[in-house]
Amino acid sequence: MPPLSRISLHCEPVRVRPPDRKVMDAVAMRILEIGEAVKALSSTTTSAEPDLNWRQIAGLRDVLTHHYFATHPEIIQATIDKDLDPLDEAIARMRGKIELLESPEA
After folding, report:
1. Tens-digit pLDDT profile for the chain (106 aa)?
2. Residue 99 burial (CB count, 10 A)
3. Whole-number CA gyration radius for the chain
4. Is the distance from CB of 43 to CB of 50 less than 8 angstroms?
5. Which residue, 16, 21, 17, 62, is CA-closest to 39?
6. Which 3-state string (H, E, C) describes 34-46?
7. Which of 47, 73, 90, 91 is the most exposed place for a label (fewest CB within 10 A)?
8. Per the confidence metrics, is the pTM higher than 0.90?
């Protein structure tokens, strides 16, 4: 299951304050996975969705990896509340374009 789908499974309890620490840790790990995947994307790929701040996504991965104990739950919460839906929508658009290119009619 992709990291965004895993996060979706955990998001509802996180939207209730105060969030459970175990859930926040699980979501933080999935965000770290997403950031790692983003780092592997080419500039050609990311340029297909210029409205997303790909650099910020990768940067959050670095924060979670290298400063894990200093990561505030508010950062994770803000990412859930503001950033995951636009990322999910961008990925869906990108997948749609790939499927069109790979279809036999293309």
Report:
1. 565 666 766 665 555 566 677 878 888 888 999 999 999 999 999 999 999 999 999 999 998 888 867 777 888 888 888 888 899 889 989 988 888 888 777 5
2. 10
3. 15
4. no
5. 62
6. HHHHHHCCCHHHH
7. 47
8. no
8 Å CB contact between 48 and 14: no
Torsional class of 77: left (φ above 0), alpha (ψ -120 to 50), beta (otherwise) = alpha
State whether residue 19 is helix, strand or coil: coil
- Give Cβ neighbours of residue 11 (< 8 Å, ≥ 6 apart): 27, 80, 84
Contacts with 89 (C-beta within 8 Å, 6 or more apart), sequence order: none
Angle separating helix axes 54-66 and 21-39, nearest 10 degrees: 130
